[in-house]
Amino acid sequence: MRTMTMESEADMLALGRRLGKLLPAGAFVALYGNLGAGKSVLARGVASAFGVDRLTSPTFTIVQEYPTTPRLFHFDAYRLADEDELYAIGFSDYLAAGGVLLMEWANLVPGCLPKERLDVRIDGAGMEARTVTLTPCGECYQKLVERL
């Protein structure tokens, strides 16, 4: 586990870019935090590492797919009724596609999360600094966190 402090949105974007450059194909990043914590900002940073200029919020569509290499899938579980609804939109296919998956509000679908993943908890809101805790679940993610 690694904990760090982000003093600004620019710091959060930079962390996302560093993380994005290290994520291998098939990676899963579960994002946790309250409204306004910075989950989407971190996701924008990751996406920028993949060459995505504009990350579109998947709040109403549940998932946005980007034609990067590997493909980037950005999920938002906030509006899901339950885990079954996530599987109904083809979540298993996304997991099997070999892309990189970012999931905001992962705490709402805990039974769907792969055993091996990177958990990123962001605490704080408003103008205050954010505390970001990276918890690797699996050896590959342990190495990734060590390299950050």
String of helices and strands? EHEHEEHHEEEH
CATH architecture label name: 3-Layer(aba) Sandwich
Approximate strand percentage: 25-35%
Give average pLDDT, whole number. Answer: 94
As for the number of domains, it is 1
Count of helix runs: 5
Structural class: alpha/beta
Please count the beta strands (DSSP E, at least 2 residues each).
7
How far do the termini sit from each other?
Answer: 12 Å
Largest sheet: 7 strands, mixed
Strand order within the widest beta sheet? 1-7-6-2-5-4-3
User: Any idea what the shape is?
Assistant: globular
Query: The CATH topology is what?
Result: Rossmann fold
CATH class: Alpha Beta
| Uncertain stretches | none
Radius of gyration: 14 Å
- Helix fraction bin: 25-40%
Which terms summarize this structure?
148 residues; alpha/beta; Rossmann fold; seven-stranded mixed β-sheet
